[in-house]
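Listing 4. Sequential folding, example run.
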Amino acid sequence: MSTPYDRRILAPFRGLRYTKPHGNQTAPPYDVLNTIQAQTFREQDSENIVHLDLPLTVGDAGSGAEADSLKNAEDVEIAHKNAAASLTNWVDQGVLGIDETPSFYIYRQEYSDTSGKRRQTLGVVGALRIGDPNIQPHEEITKKAASDRLASLNHTKTNISMIYCLSTAANLGSLLISDSPSSLDFTDEDGVRHTLQHLDSSTEIDALAASVQSAPVVIADGHHRYTMAKKYYDSLPTKIPGSDRIMALIVPLDPAHLLVRSIQRSLPSIGLTGSALREALEKVAFVTEDDPERLAEIAITDGDEEIGFVAEAKGFRLRPRPAAQSSSSSTTLQNLPAVWTRDVLLPAVKAETRVFHQDPNEVIDWVKSGEQAGAVILPPVTIAQITSVANAQERMPPKTTFFWPKARTGLVLRRFLDQENKSE
């Protein structure tokens, strides 16, 4: 007899979806959008998901401050209260419709990598059980304020966006091929094709749920949302049906399904200059000087041991010296460039503050223009390294991995009240 869904790590759920779906209703996740980009998506379509995911203090129309950038807690609450009202209106008006039966959703992304090779990421969207011992974070979280994500749950009682997780289940990839018709198919502004299949076959659902149940699930993207979902659930005096789970995309931990990019470090200040800076670098690394712009290639070279460093209009390729290893990290983590940067490089050059950014060319330009004092260009973490860290139940430093393409928001939502009295 199979394990009931309410005890499995991943369960089907009744999705809330656009009744007349098209790509202009969707957007990248809230945490990769700046204010200008968010407003562009709002103006693109009055039903764009950004109206719910990054709500404004003034509601669904006009200009106003976005919830994730507000300093005043009262304004954060107002913004998400507006989002909850918009969500209710969209359901009442038939913009969003509820699937009749608990379902899984097969999500495919097709794209070109940096070499121009066509690739795809394929996964299953389901309801992940919060607090399950087989869920493993792979990165530490920052001290970033997440009050707006908690406010979103408090007011909308809905998972508006999905978190991104990895599974080591051996047979998951083969189970993601389904004959179900696509309910949504579009190409986004970055040339990524997104396809969603609605899966309500009990046979296929059982097989997928059992596969995910058989192996640990590693959180790849969405650590803050997961943490806030757990905080929200734990704080409820009376538990709301469905609030014990969070909407998640589960992708096989396999190079065939994943493209991992690095996240660069921008340094607003460096405590050393001139010959003192060069001497500090030489103490911890083998140093080769290079044109700063050429260092951007490090960010797309999988498994490269080189780390780029830019300061004072100069570029340096660094290879860590064997004797200059992190003393605060395990052997599993010591060889990761992000760990060496945090524990060895930045203390050596007396750089205390870091700003994270995905584009290596942009952080290099910041240094050249004088906007920032320095930059660190990191190579991507490999799938083997991610697997090793996950198996050891260790955590990488914050902002070590950038999984691309990002899971699109607006493909499907998960509202708690739609799960009530329904088997998960």
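-- end of first protein; second protein begins --
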Amino acid sequence: MIRKYLVPILAITGAAIGIIAVKRSTHHYRSVPPAVQPAGNPYANAIAASGIIEPESRSIAVSPFISGVVTHVFVVWNQRVVKGQKLFQLDTRQAKAQVALARAGVLTAQAQLAEAKANLAKLQSPPRAVDRLSYLAAVQAAQATYRNDQERWQRIKPLIGTNAVSVDDVADRRFAWLTAQAQLAKAKADLAQFNAGTWSRDITIAKTQVLAARATVAGNDAQLKQAMVSLDLLTVRAPITGTVLRINIRPGQFADTTAVDNLTDNPQLAALILGDIRHLNVRLQIDQEDASRFNPAEAAMCFVRGMTRQQVPLTFVRIEPYVVPKQNLTGAPTEQVETRVLQVVYRMGSAPFPLYVGQQVDAFIKAGKLAFPAKP
């Protein structure tokens, strides 16, 4: 009896309890709409692309020409600057000292050039009468001294060997006479050289000295210009008229030029980022599989991430006809995937909300016939 009636009853009871438990544990969840609706394709046949907003001039990564400590930052974020306006400046003390040293070298070289020119002019000018009188007076004075010393020597010669004069007196008078004789000969030679005029080789040497002095002046001028250029390079100026998008330096920080090598992969390393944002462009990446279907003449529009209900019209600008590996649009595009893309630049139309450089967009380009259909 137990097996015949009790076991089936227990089985039926257990099944009923299991069904009830399953029903009680089952919850019905209502579907919740997404916070932001994804962008919808407005065309029946379109090419989808992703892109990033950039200035019309593209983002210009500005870095110093020379490494150094930043002393002044002349701009602030979102400031409009004109071409040539100061952006920031490095320490200029050493460069100013080099300029002062080079300027002193120029003044010294100019003085040496003036001296060389004066010497050449003196050699090329005719002799002056007053100079001849000076040479004649020197000869006459030397003759008088010679005659005096000669007479004194003649008077003491008979007394040599006696006790009347000492050996030192004899020597003094003899050497005085010989010295006067040499001085007279020199005065006559100077007068003869003056009467003969300037030697041609002296003029040639003087001209060579002028040329050498001019070369020294030119070299020092070049060094001064080089020092002034080095000083000017410490002040970084705006290469274009645009807006300051980002500043990565502060006074007292060291600005290094070695970061320039990495700017291609990561422009955020630049000391300052500048761009012309009067008109914004968007750089779209079209999959290589859709590149053949792309037609620049077709209409295009985009949705900014987070504003997918507002269409922004696009105007074609250019194609960059070099297919590159797809890059993550993170601001530092270093990661690559296997897909290769064609980069196309469009100008963005007006939008009812603010647009910022670096925002991501989803774009749709109307796809018609192949731009270059295959021939049968």
